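pipeline/complex-builder :: batch 7 item 3
reading input block
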Amino acid sequence: MRIAVDRRRCEGHGLCEGQAPEVFTLDDEGEVQSPFFEADLPGELTGPADRGVSACPVAALSLVG
Amino acid sequence: MTTTTPVPTYDEDIYADEALLEPYEHYRRLRNLGPAVWLEKHGAYAVTRYADVRAVLADGDTFRSANGIALNEPANSAILGCTLASDGELHAHLRQVVAHRLTPRSLRPMKEQVTEAADALVAQLVQRGSFDAVADLARALPLSIVPDFIGWPQEGREHLLRWAGANFDSFGPVNERVEKALPQCGEMAAFGAEIVRTGNVLPGSLGASVLEARDRGEVTTEQTMMLMLDYLAPSLDTTISAVGSAIWLFGEHPDQWDRIREDPKLIPNAVNEVVRYESPISSFGRLVERDTEIDGVPVAAGSRVVVSYASANRDERKWADPEVFDVTRKDAVHQLGFGYGEHGCAGQALARMETESILTALARSVTRFELGTPERALNNLIRALGSLPVTVHTAG
Ligand code: HEM
Ligand code: SF4
């Protein structure tokens, strides 16, 4: 499972990072970054990833695969 | 037409004064009736359960905002073309113009100014001891920051609150409040249009950046006039409601205020919990684009839907003890009071910053809020106190 991000929608509200800093971080530009946009999520991080995805207020994130 | 599932109906006027004063029992009954309930008085389906509200907000292709936000035609026509009332690609484009200066990153330089304004205001009110938490606090902070930030000229500012209230009233079903509101919405639109015509906004402001986008050809003059409404209408009343409700809730629940004082890091979560518990905007509408189902209830193309953030935020299917105000609630971040998805509130970072700054300043010195008798300000969409006398107690 990976995380998909809709860059056009993300406005850097950072609520994903607040829920799961081990999965999401905001860079200096306020853009969300995650190793798991590219790589598969390890099993132990699917819970936190899901919490971060569902906290995004503009639905910029989703779990895929 | 034959349908297999009978659609539940509800015959009470949920916009009558008594219902606006005590809405939560109506919401509970609507949630228990079904995923979509036909409101006989209003000619629309109410969507009131958390999962359904979230699903409807996530599906903007089926549930459209253009001609859908209000429960009456005149109001829908009046706002057609602003970000709030547009869809699809056009919406995504307008949203970028309106929202790019409202993102947390763009707001970083504002943080100091907002914090200072909140600290100074709170210091002065604590000194006074007794004040009106709505007039002197909840209204005072946004009014000292937001109009300058957006760039409104001085002349006309005295009408901003009246116009904002009228705007939210106008979205209801045709009732006396709507009829009173519509002419005032016309005044507000004329003010926005005049600003675009004359370019009379403060330099460097949000309004100025929208005019620059027009000059670069990114939006038309006509569109620019509508975009001014996105800033005029929702930027004050909403935050004022949240701050007023916060003081009321902390006055009623001193144990929760103690939690905040012990651990001010809870403040961002507390803001989510306030917005969950007393959602400032009770609902917005949508227009159904094609025949669809809401959790098994068939809904035909052309129907109106009332999407109740306030009910979703009290849904016992989603929340443990939804009637309990709990600043440590683990999933408070899931509240839908700022909406969700493509139309999710563009100004929430600013609203959060303002509300958090006030609570942070209060938490430094106030130990207790002693409440007088609150008075509600009735509005078709906004749930807010009109007045809340309070006496604050301090440790020193
Ligand atoms: C506590 C304060 C606030 C609350 C509860 C709130 C609530 C909401 C909600 C529920 C929506 C969703 C609309 C929909 O689903 O159709 C929304 C949209 C919007 N809000 Fe807020 N709002 C607040 C503060 C603000 C502020 C301070 C601003 C501006 C400075 C603002 C600007 C907007 C705009 C422009 C939209 C339209 C976004 C779009 O359609 O893409 N809001 N707000
Ligand atoms: S919560 Fe959503 S909008 Fe905010 S940074 Fe994360 S992905 Fe972006």
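note: The interface with chain A takes residues 58, 92, 96, 99, 102-105, 268, 333-334, 338-342, 344-346, 348-349 of chain B (CB under 8 Å).
queue -> next item
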